[in-house]
Amino acid sequence: MSDGARSHDTGLAATRSLTARLVTGLSGLMIVGGLILALAAFAYGRTAARDAFDRLLVGAANDIAASISIRDGAPVVDLPVSAFELLALAPDDRIAYQVSGPKGAVLTGYKDLPRPNTTAQDSELYDARFKGEPARYIRVTRRFAERQFSGTVEVIVGQTLRARTQLALSITRNALGGLAVGGIAMLAFAIIIVHSALRPLERLAHGISERDPQDLTPIRAAVPREVDVLVQATNGFMGRLDRQFATMKSLISDTAHQLRTPVAALRAQSDLAAEEDDPARRDQIVAKMHSGTVRLSRLLDQMLSRALVIHRADSARRERVDLRNIALDIFEEGDHAALAPGSDIRLEIAEAEVPVLADELSLSEAAKNLLGNALAHGEAPVTIGAELRDGRARLWVRDAGPGPSPELRARLGERFAPGRTDTRRRGASSGLGLAIAQSVAETYGGTLEMESDAAGFTIAITLPRAEEAP
């Protein structure tokens, strides 16, 4: 099946690849960065070009100022060729100059050149226009103090900005060219790196696709730390699926194995009752049928309860639960009266809260099964309670009997373990009750503990307190 078909079957549209996202993101970043760099490069180029050509203006103006001499009491200008050679380095630009004597009399050059706003300095650069075109000017003042002439002569030299603009644009183009080459190389390397980084994902997807549908064992693959999070999440999901499948298989297996014999016995007894003519004998058979039906109902309840508890272990949200409330609810419900009519049930709960983080329904089912096991196999009185001991929360059931032998105690908690043969109901089966309690305890980070003392045999679900629970 193709990738497109798989996407269509799952009802999910494939999004853009990581490579496409990376290329798009880097392209946008380079475009924005290129615009910023272009503005910065143009500003730098314009400054550099202005400084370079300002030096030409300064040199030309100083050469002209140096060529001024005094003859017959008047300033005379002998324009040097070197000044115009400097300005000719910008062949596309237009040049303007003016030499003026005292009182602003123009000695040579253009008569209508713009002047700076201030004349406080002997040398000053300023911007103005020349015949409608932007230009750059410099004003240089030369002072004379001779017998024949005393005063100042001003030299103004101007140049349009074409060469400056071309130089600034050239610097900008060179900077953007380097950026373009570097950006393309960066994109190429990014694509190669992304493909290399995604190879573990491709190997992981290939390994999962080739797995047997029944193989829910954890994935073992050497992947980068970032991908390991995905692997762990997938392993956790498959672990939950595996537990759910195991629960269903166990329920089916237990149903087929445990129900076949009692159902066959009930059918045989019903056949005997239908053929029996003696009323007294028929009543005995009916009583056996009723007893077998009660045991069968109890077994079915435990099997379904175990399946429910295992299912909720992965699906139910953990909440703060006070174990005292569970013990009190079980005591007040009075379901034990149906299991053991006339039984002596007592309640002992602590004054302080006994908090845990768990599923209330699962804990309640486990406690009911502990109470049912004590009523079926223990000795009166039977006590249910909740307390804190050594910093841990305990939900316990105690009966007055000595408890099972060490050999049987080691097997308690297994499914369909044999009953407590040293009590008043020899040969009875403890069924799934203790297995349910042990599963609940282990699910929420606790244990199923058993102890015997002068007060009797106690079995308890011990869990971390809510503040300590993970």
Automatic annotation (TrEMBL):
<keyword id="KW-1133">Transmembrane helix</keyword>
<dbReference type="InterPro" id="IPR003661">
    <property type="entry name" value="HisK_dim/P_dom"/>
</dbReference>
<dbReference type="InterPro" id="IPR003594">
    <property type="entry name" value="HATPase_dom"/>
</dbReference>
<protein>
    <recommendedName>
        <fullName>histidine kinase</fullName>
        <ecNumber>2.7.13.3</ecNumber>
    </recommendedName>
</protein>
<dbReference type="Pfam" id="PF08521">
    <property type="entry name" value="2CSK_N"/>
</dbReference>
<dbReference type="InterPro" id="IPR036890">
    <property type="entry name" value="HATPase_C_sf"/>
</dbReference>
<keyword id="KW-0812">Transmembrane</keyword>
<feature type="domain" description="HAMP">
    <location>
        <begin position="195"/>
        <end position="246"/>
    </location>
</feature>
<keyword id="KW-0418">Kinase</keyword>
<keyword id="KW-0902">Two-component regulatory system</keyword>
<feature type="transmembrane region" description="Helical">
    <location>
        <begin position="20"/>
        <end position="45"/>
    </location>
</feature>
<feature type="domain" description="Histidine kinase">
    <location>
        <begin position="254"/>
        <end position="467"/>
    </location>
</feature>
<dbReference type="InterPro" id="IPR005467">
    <property type="entry name" value="His_kinase_dom"/>
</dbReference>
<dbReference type="InterPro" id="IPR036097">
    <property type="entry name" value="HisK_dim/P_sf"/>
</dbReference>
<keyword id="KW-0808">Transferase</keyword>
<keyword id="KW-0597">Phosphoprotein</keyword>
<dbReference type="InterPro" id="IPR004358">
    <property type="entry name" value="Sig_transdc_His_kin-like_C"/>
</dbReference>
<dbReference type="InterPro" id="IPR013727">
    <property type="entry name" value="2CSK_N"/>
</dbReference>
<dbReference type="Pfam" id="PF00512">
    <property type="entry name" value="HisKA"/>
</dbReference>
<dbReference type="InterPro" id="IPR050428">
    <property type="entry name" value="TCS_sensor_his_kinase"/>
</dbReference>
<dbReference type="GO" id="GO:0016301">
    <property type="term" value="F:kinase activity"/>
</dbReference>
<feature type="transmembrane region" description="Helical">
    <location>
        <begin position="176"/>
        <end position="198"/>
    </location>
</feature>
<keyword id="KW-0472">Membrane</keyword>
<dbReference type="InterPro" id="IPR003660">
    <property type="entry name" value="HAMP_dom"/>
</dbReference>
<dbReference type="Pfam" id="PF02518">
    <property type="entry name" value="HATPase_c"/>
</dbReference>
